[in-house]
């Protein structure tokens, strides 16, 4: 599946405050990009714009699959997203969450796939427990199961190792390496070692605004 | 995305809302308590006085209007408060979310109306319906308009910092024409007029519902993405 993302002159303002401007990059299959910058520099905002959840003030994101442009409102079908501010439904169990989100997303993943994902993120034994009883690390693992449910060609990770123990971090590293082989990976991070996993970097502190190869 | 998958996705949102409500009782308890409390206050206030059926028709819709305000405004606010808005962005198109939430509000309001009407007919002396077909038609069309307007107002309010104050401020002028027409239609039902005499009210109610739904369809994408 050939996939590409192009950012052309992206700018975001909240009221009159400019968060960032003139962000440009082009990514194709097997490319990876790290977005770095201090707190408040707009890393999460840029990820949300790429996912289609937010609109940029200026510029355009274009996501194509098999050379066909995908509308911003349909971009969620191709994107997996993990972030500390992304919450699943506390009143449901992990299994109920994934089944419900599968139904709403309209994907045909089998129950076996869901159970395999829960095994992978080490939540299989707690699959029937309410999410409100989970620790923050367990919630982060569940977000990975949610993000990978539809085998997305584009994976967006905001602070990927947030709240995870060593075992969780190892699983995430494995997911990152697999994604780099089969699609596009974009990581927003403050951690140097996470940024080093990617081929290109955009530093929002310096407002370089261009995907620079390492 | 095909129409069939959009419909399936909309029904998925509705299913999520119903399951979530049955587990958390965010809106249900607030709505039911409001109806019971308001009816009790009216009963104490009226006492043994005789109140005209026209006034009772107005009071009925005041109860429904304020109950709807206390419960339906939560539709999008709970998603904001629990941080699940981003999750919704990642699982469905904006219009699917709007129509899923609208259907949920419609069913919730229908259940509330049935509950309110049964209590009202049983407890309020002097309130009786002369023509049930006019009354039921008014209730169904009113529920449609009220659910549609409440859903889009709730979406706007959820993005604001002063959520509690903004909902009634926005809802009152938008819902006023609907409420006045509903009170008129209920008066006609109470008086027992024939169905054709209430057609003018029904035309207004249908037009209102369609207009608000069409405006919501056009605006929701913009509201949802800030």
List keywords for this structure.
heterodimer, A: 214 residues, alpha/beta, 6-stranded mixed β-sheet, 4-stranded antiparallel β-sheet, 6 helices, B: 226 residues, mainly alpha, globular
Would you mind describing this structure in some detail?
The complex is a heterodimer of chains A (214) and B (226). Chain A has 214 residues and is α/β, with parallel strands linked by helices. Chain A is 30% helix and 29% strand. Chain A contains six helices and ten strands; from the N terminus they run βββαβββαααβαβαββ. Chain A has helices at 43-51, 94-105, 111-120, 136-148, 166-182, 192-195, and strands at 3-14, 17-28, 32-36, 58-65, 68-70, 79-82, 154-158, 184-189, 200-203, 212-213. In chain A, the strands form two sheets. A six-stranded mixed β-sheet of chain A has the order 6-7-8-3-9-10, with helices on both faces. In chain A, a hairpin with an 8-residue loop joins strand 9 and strand 10. Chain A is globular and about 45 Å long. The two termini of chain A are 26 Å apart. Chain B is built from nine helices and no strands. The chains are: A alpha/beta (214), B mainly alpha (226). The A-B interface holds A 48, 51-55, 73-74, 76-77, 79, 81, 83, 85-92, 96, 100-101, 103-106, 146 and B 1, 5, 8-9, 12-13, 15-16, 19-20, 23-24, 82-84, 86-87, 89-94, 96, 221, 225-226.
Briefly summarize what is shown.
The complex is a heterodimer of chains A (214) and B (226). Chain A has 214 residues and is an alpha/beta fold.
What's the arrangement of secondary structure elements?
The complex is a heterodimer of chains A (214) and B (226).
Chain A: E1 3-14, E2 17-28, E3 32-36, H1 43-51, E4 58-65, E5 68-70, E6 79-82, H2 94-105, H3 111-120, H4 136-148, E7 154-158, H5 166-182, E8 184-189, H6 192-195, E9 200-203, E10 212-213
Parallel strand pairs in A: 3-8, 3-9, 6-7, 7-8
Antiparallel strand pairs in A: 1-2, 1-4, 4-5, 9-10
Helix pairs in contact in A: 2-3
Chain B: H1 3-24, H2 26-46, H3 53-72, H4 74-82, H5 85-89, H6 94-123, H7 132-158, H8 163-191, H9 199-224
Helix pairs in contact in B: 1-6, 2-3, 2-6, 3-6, 3-7, 3-8, 4-7, 6-7, 7-8, 7-9, 8-9
